[in-house]
Amino acid sequence: MARIIILNGVSSAGKSSLARAIQGKADRTFLHIEMDAFISFLPNGHEFRPEWFEVQKIPGERSPLPRIINGPRGEALLSVMRQFVFNAADRRLDMIVDEVCHAREVRDYRDGLVNHDLTVVKVHAPLDVVAAREKARGNRLIGLGQEQSTHLHDGIDYDEVIDTSSGSARELAAQLLSRIAT
């Protein structure tokens, strides 16, 4: 049986930093499976084509916000990523999955990993913190975290919730690992 931790949250919520901290604190070896890594398989400039991950602008309070719509090729790519997670788990590889997914995909993870030790974690931070991280990173669509926050977590029952603004990644990783007893 594999140990799988799904970190789900909006862009710039702190999932990757938390995943790396979990890897550093855990007594077992976790692979870090990043959605962004799978998207990076695409040639530069192709990721935002409509067939992959189309960026639309939607009305926001102060200015338009970006919304990413998965095109058919993007859906196929993310499906391959999830199948990789299922196959790796069946080979008893422990993983931290760093994702931006909705209720349907979380149900797919729960169904596909039913024979494994799975924890689904909501990773979030206040929107002003997310916005500051987007700007500081320099490679994010500004406002994406805010747009995703309006719908991403709808209909998802989480096993754990972590506010990444409440402590360092190392502290939060230690807290999570103590609660889920890896």
Task: Report on the architecture of this protein.
It is a single chain. By secondary structure, the protein is of the alpha/beta class. It has one domain: Rossmann fold. It has seven helices and seven strands; from the N terminus they run E-H-E-H-E-E-H-E-H-E-H-H-E-H. The strands form two sheets. The protein has a five-stranded parallel sheet with strand order 2-5-1-6-7, sandwiched between helices. The protein has a two-stranded antiparallel sheet with strand order 3-4. The longest helix is centred in the middle third of the chain and has 19 residues, at 72-90.
Quick synopsis:
With 182 residues, the chain is α/β, with parallel strands linked by helices. 41% of the residues lie in helices and 21% in strands. It starts with a strand and ends with a helix.
- From the coordinates shown, what is the CATH architecture? 3-Layer(aba) Sandwich
Shape estimate = globular
Residue windows where pLDDT falls under 50 for at least 5 positions: none
Assigned CATH class: Alpha Beta
- What class do helices, strands and sheet pairing give? alpha/beta
Instruction: Round the Cα radius of gyration to an integer and report it.
Output: 16 Å
Secondary structure blueprint with pairings:
Blueprint: E1 3-8, H1 15-25, E2 31-34, H2 35-39, E3 53-58, E4 65-70, H3 72-90, E5 95-99, H4 103-112, E6 117-124, H5 127-137, H6 144-149, E7 160-163, H7 169-180
Parallel strand pairs: 1-5, 1-6, 2-5, 6-7
Antiparallel strand pairs: 3-4
